[in-house]
Amino acid sequence: MSIKKVALLLVIVALVAGYFFFDVGQYLSLDYLKAQRGAFQALAGEHPVAVLGGFFALYVLVTALSLPGAAIMTLAAGALFGFWVALLLVSFASSVGATLAFLAARFLFKDAVQARFGERLKKINAGVEKDGAFYLFTLRLIPAFPFFVINLVMALTPLKTWTFYWVSQVGMLAGTAVYVNAGTQLGELSSLSGLLSPGLLGALVLLGLFPWLARAVLAVVRRRQVYRGYDKPKHFDRNLIVIGAGSAGLVSAYIAATVKAKVSLIEAEKMGGDCLNTGCVPSKALIKSASLAHLERVPERYGFKRITTEFDFADIQARIQRVIGRIEPHDSVERYQALGVDCIQGRARLVSPWEVAIETVDGERRLSARAIVIATGARPLVPSIPGIDQVRVLTSENLWRVTELPPRLLVLGGGPIGCELAQSFARLGSRVTQVEQGPRLLPREDDDAARAVAEALREDGVELLTGHKAIRFSVEDGEQRVHTESEQGQRRLPFDAVLVAVGRRANTAGLGLEDLGITTGDNGTLDLDERLRTRFPNIYGCGDVAGPYQFTHVAAHQAWYAAVNALFSGLKTFKADYRVIPWATFTAPEVARVGLNEQEAREKGIAVEVTRYGIDDLDRAIADGSDRGFVKVLTPPGKDRILGVTIVGEAASDLISEYVLAMKHGLGLNKILGTIHIYPTRAEANKFAAGEWKKAHKPEKLLRWVQRFHTARR
Ligand SMILES: Cc1cc2nc3c(=O)[nH]c(=O)nc-3n(C[C@H](O)[C@H](O)[C@H](O)COP(=O)(O)OP(=O)(O)OC[C@H]3O[C@@H](n4cnc5c(N)ncnc54)[C@H](O)[C@@H]3O)c2cc1C
């Protein structure tokens, strides 16, 4: 604690101690007030300004120090100065006093409380930032909440001081008026308890709830306004229409069918969407083939003189298609029809908040539904770099049709997709150059994780050009070239195909959103509220088209919220919960992550303790010849609560699950350490990381005593 804080605390403690030591409370009682009323009135008659000023200062002091007696002083004000003057005086004095108490508590405790409980207070902070004035107003009006407790608690939140002041003044006015009025009839008062009759209390509670009621009514009116100009059908063809049969759409339709809703699922292209056909599945199948080809380069690691792999790239692509074919039935029309989903092949467009037009091979069809889920996904973003239309551009969409390995592959983009594909093609034998305009790969991950991946890519033969921007493409003498710019100057690099992996843009074009006024934000993703609703409360979005995390498992997670909210709105809706979201980059080594990392902790100013366990120490990893990487766990300093984990290494994407479960269910490192892990497995790395944390927190003092105990027993 700083000297200033200690000094302020001492002054407050001294004043409060003085109050009790000199028994100042005896002068702030109803009996004393009644007995001295005449004397006080005479004094006020003789020196009105001094008495008013003195009273104001005393009132401010009592409330600022959170001392008992404010109620009696309010009665006194009524008795001495009459209703209106007293109301004015007490209203300002109590608000100023409350604000001083608020400022003092904020100065003394807010930083410490937020630093210690910041993560847990996130939701409360967000609520106060949004609705703090409403909460405070309600609390001020309902006398059941003690005045000084409100001052102190509000100080620990992000509520603005000015908001606190004026809301307090307005909110306390009704209660102040009641007490001041009672003070004007002091002679008839026998106790303070009778002042707030049940009727009066009820009225104050209603007044406190008024802003909330008003807001709810306003929301209903606004909702109605949104639909103005559209004819709501009297009956609907479906309970739910889902547009897009990728990960998000399939799960939405599945949930609807499970809860016996009538649901149509509309898909313009292939069931399974991006993940099955052009994303996760083919890329992971490619990574597996590439990892086998890689063995050719490291035979001695496993005791071989030579390992040879012979292949045609076309066969590898054929295997990828076989893998897709094996998984396809999970997402097929047959399976979903059997589940009770009406699957429609066609391109959908919204024509009203309840109606969808579908272009099918047999012409246009229209369907209405009480609710609609937009799950149309995203597609690779191809930047408009000059000359890009003259060169051979590959993206995650057309890559899977290529049957010959490009001898020289340029990969644009250093994100997860760019890294996974650059490494795979390099391992299969392409000469890969990866260009990333940022200073390093994997910008969302910690520097050490990104460095491990960069090192591995270089070892696999990828020429990494970070800090390089592709500014132009050209074709000279039949040779395709990219022109890059960096701090070191300009370069021209020849290539046979360029694989563009610089981000993804949501599929919202042609959906009729503009006509309905449904807005989009970053990269075309839908503007949605916390319940995944568009401006029309019956139209929802989920998956890549919703963002912000573009992963299959997040699409499925969001789909639950979108479908349940869509089907049960009016009864119960849920805010999408993004607290524990894991993801992985499937390079070798893999990078898996859940929760906070060091980079984010720094950006957000969150104090963390970092525990690290090196996988080069792990028996199983050594035996397998893949002993690279680490487990890094972030906890609040000195506390057994997991804030985030990054794992780099083979199977990191599987290993992280133990930490995901721990975070989801509030389990700490002691619990992981106390769990039996099979020997020898990679999963032991999780336990050893917990062990590192435990070692750093061993009870040194206690152990010294235990040592003495053992010495004595020898
Ligand atoms: C190369 C690559 C690798 C990836 N690897 C992983 C990974 O390992 N793990 C992971 O979690 N994620 C991965 N992803 C991301 C993952 O594929 C997506 O997050 C996921 O597919 C999103 O699902 P979705 O349902 O939102 O969208 P999509 O799967 O894109 O589905 C949307 C569907 O909507 C259809 N559609 C669009 N407009 C209309 C319309 N108007 N009418 C009817 N239908 C329409 C589309 O045809 C499409 O089938 C990867 C992506 C790529 C590109």
Distinct helical segment count: 23
- In round numbers, the mean pLDDT is 92
Which residues sit in consecutive blocks of at least 5 with pLDDT less than 50? none
Helix-strand makeup class: alpha/beta
Percentage beta strand? 15-25%
Overall geometry comes to globular
Give the ligands present. flavin-adenine dinucleotide
Distance between the termini: 46 Å
Radius of gyration of CA atoms, rounded to a whole number:
34 Å
In total, the number of strands is 22
Helix content: 40-55%
Biggest sheet statistics: 7 strands, mixed
What does this structure look like?
The chain is of the alpha/beta class and 714 residues long. Strand 13 and strand 14 form a beta hairpin. Helix 4 packs across helix 7. The chain is globular, with a radius of gyration of 34 Å. The mean pLDDT is 92. The strands form five sheets. Strands 1, 2, 3, 4, 5, 6 and 17 form a seven-stranded mixed sheet that branches. The protein has a five-stranded parallel sheet with strand order 8-15-9-10-11, covered by helices on one side. Strands 18-19-22-21-20 form a five-stranded antiparallel sheet, sandwiched between helices. The chain is built from 23 helices and 22 strands. The chain binds flavin-adenine dinucleotide.
